[in-house]
Structure prediction request, 601 residues.
Amino acid sequence: MADATLDTRDGMQRTEANGLFRGLRGLTAAESTRWFPWRSLTFTALGLALLVGNYVSWLAQKDKILGHLILSSLTLWVLVLILMTVAATQSTVAGEIAQGTAAWIVAKPVGKTAFVISKFAALIPVVVVAMVGVPGVVARFIFVAAEGNGRTEFNGYEVMRLVNEPSARGEYTTVPDWADHLGTLGLLMVIILVIAAAMVLLGCVLGHATAIFAVGLMIPIAMVVLALTPIDHQFVSLTPAWLMESFIDGAGDNPAPVLAPVVVGLLWIAGLLGVASWWFNRREL
Amino acid sequence: MTERLQAPAIDVRGLRKRFGRTEVLRSVDLSVPLNSVFGFLGPNGAGKTTTMKVLVGLLHASGGSASVMGHDVARESMQARAVIGYLPQDVSYWRHLTVRDVLAFTARRYLDLSRRELHEQVDDTIELAGLGHLADRRVRKLSGGERQRLGVAEAWVGRPDVLILDEPSSGLDPEGRHEVLDLLDRLREHATILYSTHILDDVERIADQIAIIDHGAIVAAGPVDSFLIGSTAIYSVGIDGAKHGAVDLLRTAPWVDSIELGSDGRIEITVNDRQHAEHGLLRAFVEHGAHVTDFRPTRRSLEDTYLDLVGANDHG
Prediction:
């Protein structure tokens, strides 16, 4: 990776001049500053909403109608989460190309691949800390306070069982939820990152207006999917728990290990970013 | 090593660029000498920005080759960009950054500096560009002139060997233009400068060399003086006494294009061959008994030459 480093005329040393990833760390750090504070706070709020939504949904099991209402509202929450991720990430590449800041950056000695990856890399700490870490820590205290033993009913894999099999409620008080909770949040994080990687790719391939159009198209598609979902499932069909189950193996009572979907998710991310980088390296600005 | 030093800072040969069916660069040949200030002229759409974008790797050439400080811009794009400071025509920054942030961000991309050295580097550049009072202002609050000065300073903060500046003084009021040109004048000791512009007065003021591009090809290139003099010239002659005999004789000379008699007794003679004119004009007047009180070539403006070249190409 090291390059024949040349000195400037006045004797200063230039940074190494080779590599697709040249400048990745600096670009990621610079990109991260754009996520603070408002975008990060918004993601934190969404993470906390996930926590509250799931906790309240358990409380609502005592009242079926109230439970359905709350679970339905979670549908909206998931849509907001997905759209928030989409909206926040589509502008990172497509928006920068449209505004000319992408050209401003890649005319410098930085790798175009580094530019693309930095857009994604800057999102990781935001998702980990704001969406998963903060709600996770908060959940730890809330659940301990609520149950007195650090165990709660919050279990992303088995919310459907909780809904469909009231008799199962009793099981949850003994489930060591902290690991499940982290697993759920981890999976959620992977889903968000896959969406973000897809949006980075979209930004590299499409123009800004087209990317916005594609994002806008997702809303009616989601509505159609929702409308076509059988009514019995609609209340929970787009809740985080359902997403988790679908992501694993589609069987609510047979949760697979978290590792497998995480690995699959990471492979998707690598593939999406690889194509995005390849495309961006070919693209003229 | 000697060969490397004597090579041009920018060497472009037969550069071509197509956008679909449109051929924007037909065959551009450009040689920018080391340590020169090189004015790149041409009408809108002639290919100036496209050429510059190919040099900094934002566009891929359809043919030909280009190198900067010996680095091929296609095969060694990163190495080439490492020695280029670039100011785009419509520069955009991240709006949340301050002037100091922009310069620090750019300096880090080019130079391996400690935190203390980075601060010094940024401070030096801020001082050079006269941006001291704006150092902590966000870029979105800068005026057009301030933004352009920041653009030039930012191109320079990485201490590149070559500055490529796309219309650094366009759209500025006279004071803003003056400030940007002053800044370029200060930088000429430190780097080779290639800059494009529509403002011919600016070129005359600071450029050593010029290239004029039109319809995607270079139509003329060389030292500024060669454009100001050229083979066509106007001589202003002051005469005491009879002059009509000499004027009649000169009208028949093949190297005289036109003769205008001024009301103040001066005669303006446009010639197409300076060498013949230098000898033949004075002799004609002296032989016809005229007393020449004043004889001087009138400086031809760059605008005249530019319009001749670009205009000829338009109608050719």
Remarks:
- The interface with chain A takes residues 53, 56-60, 78-79, 81-84, 86, 88, 90-94, 96, 105-106, 108-113, 117, 121, 158-161, 190-191 of chain B (CB under 8 Å).
- The mean pLDDT of chain B is 86.
- Chain B has two domains: 3-227, 230-298.
